[in-house]
Write the structure tokens for this entry.
Amino acid sequence: MVRFFVMLAVSYLLGSIPTAILTGKVLKGIDIRQYGSGNAGATNVFRVLGWKAGIFVLLVDMAKGFVATVVVYKLALGAVDIQPVVLQIIAGLAAVFGHIWTVFAGFKGGKGVGAGAGMIIGLVPGAVLAGIIVFVIVVALTRYVSLGSILASITVAIYLYGKHFLLHQPVELPLLILGLLVPLLIIFTHRSNIQRLLQGKENRIEFKKN
């Protein structure tokens, strides 16, 4: 059990690395949380520091979820009587939780999209590809990153359940459960965005550097 808790701690701390905050301080000497939407995530970095910085933060955040899911989970492999895929999910979710509630920034981090995408890449790459396509189309048409993120997460669930029940290609039960948890988590972290969307007050992303 010690190795299991070590896995949890390492995954959480990996996810907790405040990429957006560090990027803002290194590039401009600013606290990204004091600008734009105030969120410590890739979208706000994109908005405040430009697309290059935004993509960098997104890729690093994705890497955190991916590494936890495909590498860190091995710390507990064989130490507990838990399916490998379940260990992968637990490690990936620990990284996502670390990203959202980072211990290094008062437990206020990003919204989990980047780290969550990295986790899903490590588990079901095809689901992420489908989500990315939906995300790009939605953001291109509406310029609402929050809406794109929410619909992309729902697409992951549709992909998994469609593959299992419509295409009759077996998907493990833990992944089907994850398919429900992912959109619920993303909707939860975007609850203020949803409220602004309903009020017509949500910020749109600009595809140019200020």
In short: The chain has one domain: 2-199. The mean pLDDT is 95. Residues 2-199 form one domain. Residues 145-166 form the longest helix (22 residues).
